[in-house]
Specification:
Blueprint lengths: L6 E18 L5 E19 L4 E6 L13 H13 L5 E6 L10 H16 L6 H11 L3 H6 L2 E5 L4 E4 L6 E7 L6 H11 L12 H9 L2 H7 L1 E2 L2 H7 L3 H10 L4 E4 L6 E5 L2 H14 L4 E7 L5 E2 L1
Parallel strand pairs: 1-8, 3-4
Antiparallel strand pairs: 1-2, 1-12, 2-4, 2-5, 5-6, 7-10, 7-11, 9-10
This protein binds 4-diphosphocytidyl-2-C-methyl-D-erythritol and adenosine-5'-triphosphate.
Pathway: Isoprenoid biosynthesis; isopentenyl diphosphate biosynthesis via DXP pathway; isopentenyl diphosphate from 1-deoxy-D-xylulose 5-phosphate: step 3/6
Pfam family, one: GHMP_kinases_N
Family: Belongs to the GHMP kinase family. IspE subfamily.
C-alpha cells in the first residue's frame, strides 16, 4: 500500500522467449514476432500530488536513470495529462530493481507504471484501449509492461495478442557491467544481415505450444533471439556468461532482448539458486538473480 494521497504501481521486467526480427522498415523500425514473457523482477512507481512534474529514483542502478523529461515515466505522465487537458502535476518516485539498459524493458516498465499510477491519482479512469495507445506512443515494449503475463507482439512489437501459459517457469538473469543501446543492437543486426534475404518474422508453433502446456524442456529447445548475434558482436564477453550458465546446469541460455542481460531457463527453483551462485562465482557477470514467470502486468498496490 502507498502512503495516503499517493498511488504505487508495481511493474514486471520481461524476457523475449522468441524474438524474430524482419528487415528494417522505411521508418527505421523492424517488424517483429516478439513473444514476451513477464518475469518476477519489478520496478515500483509511486505517484504523489505535487506542483509541477518531478522524478526521483532509488536502487543500485539509480545513477544511470535520467531524472529529466526524457525519463519514460515523465513522458507517460505528460502524455496522459495532455490527453485529458490537465497539467502533469505529480511527483514520481521510481524504486528500480530492473537492470538499466539491460534488455529487460526497465524504462518501459516505469512508463507503464507511471501511466497507471497517474491515472489512478488523478481519478481519470482512462479506458484500457486508450492507455494501450499511449503505451505504444511511449515505446514498442511499453504496452506489454502494462499487460504482463505472456503475449505475442507484432508490428514493431506494440500490437499484442495475449498468450495462454500452462505452468510456471524458473529463470536466472545475469546482469552485465554497462548497458547496450537498443538502436545500436538493431543497427548491428542490419549490418550483419546486409545482402541477406531476411525472412518475414513468424512465431514458432513449437514455442507457443511449450508455453501453453507449461513444458520447460520444450520451451528450452525453442528459445530464439534474432538479436543475439548482434548483441554478441557488440559485446563478445557475453559468450562466456552464456557458457557459464549452461555449464552450471541451465537447460538453455540466451541474450534477453537487445541485451546485455543474459537469461537462463532452469528446471526448478533449486537449480535456479545453484546456477545463480555459479554465475556469480564465475566472474563473467555483475550479478545473477533468480525469477519466475509468468508475472502479472502493471498492478496498483
Ligand atoms: C529489443 C526489444 O526490447 C524486444 O522486446 C524491443 O524491440 C525494443 O523496444 P523499445 O526499447 O521499446 O524500443 P523503442 O523505444 O520503440 O525504439 C527504440 C529504437 O529501437 C529500434 N527498434 C525498436 C523496435 C523495433 N521493432 N524495431 C526497431 O528497430 C529503433 O532503432 C528505435 O528507434
Ligand atoms: N525510467 C527509466 N529507467 C531506465 N532508463 C530510462 C528510463 N527512462 C528513460 N531511460 C533511458 O532509456 C535507456 C534504456 O533503458 P532501459 O532500462 O529501458 O533499457 P532496456 O531494458 O534495454 O530497454 P528494452 O528492453 O525495452 O529495449 C537508458 O539508458 C536511459 O537513458
Amino acid at each position: 500500500m502507498s502512503a495516503p494521497g499517493s498511488v504505487t504501481v508495481r511493474v514486471p521486467a520481461k524476457v523475449n522467449v522468441q524474438l524474430a526480427v524482419g528487415a528494417a522498415r522505411p521508418d527505421g523500425f523492424h517488424d517483429l514476432a516478439n513473444v514476451f514473457l513477464a518475469v518476477s523482477l519489478y520496478d515500483e512507481v509511486t505517484a504523489t500530488p505535487a506542483a509541477g512534474l518531478t522524478i526521483t529514483c532509488e536502487g543500485p542502478d539509480a545513477d544511470k536513470v535520467p531524472l529529466d523529461r526524457t525519463n519514460l515515466a515523465a513522458r507517460a505522465a505528460e502524455l496522459l495529462a495532455a490527453r485529458h487537458g490537465v497539467s502533469p502535476d505529480v511527483h514520481l518516485h521510481i524504486r528500480k530493481d530492473i537492470p538499466v539498459a539491460g534488455g529487460m524493458a526497465g524504462g518501459s516498465a516505469d512508463g507503464a507504471g507511471a501511466l497507471l499510477a497517474c491515472d489512478a491519482l488523478w481519478g481519470l479512469d482512462t479506458p484500457r484501449e486508450v492507455l494501450l495507445e499511449i503505451c505504444a506512443e511511449l515505446g514498442s515494449d511499453v504496452p506489454f509492461s502494462l499487460v504482463g503475463g505472456a503475449a505475442l507482439g507484432t508490428g514493431r512489437g506494440e500490437r499484442l495478442t495475449e498468450l495462454p501459459v500452462g505452468g510456471g517457469f524458473h529463470w536466472v538473469f545475469a546482469a552485465a557491467d554497462g548497458g547496450l543501446s537498443t538502436p545500436a543492437v538493431y543497427g548491428e543486426f542490419d549490418r550483419l544481415t546486409e545482402g541477406v534475404e531476411v525472412p518475414e518474422p513468424a512465431a514458432s508453433p513449437l514455442l507457443l505450444d511449450a508455453l501453453r502446456t507449461g513444458d520447460t524442456t520444450a520451451l528450452a529447445a525453442a528459445l530464439a533471439n534474432d538479436l543475439q548475434a548482434a548483441a554478441l558482436s557488440l559485446r563478445p564477453s557475453l559468450a562466456a556468461t552464456l557458457a557459464a550458465g549452461t555449464d552450471a546446469g541451465a537447460l538453455a541460455a540466451l541474450v534477453s532482448g537487445s541485451g546485455p542481460t543474459t537469461a537462463f531457463l532452469v528446471k526448478d527453483a533449486e537449480t535456479a539458486a545453484a546456477v545463480a551462485a555459479a554465475l556469480t562465482a564465475s566472474g563473467t557477470c555483475r550479478t545473477a538473480r533468480t525469477a519466475t514467470s509468468p508475472a502479472p502486468g502493471a498492478t496498483v498496490l
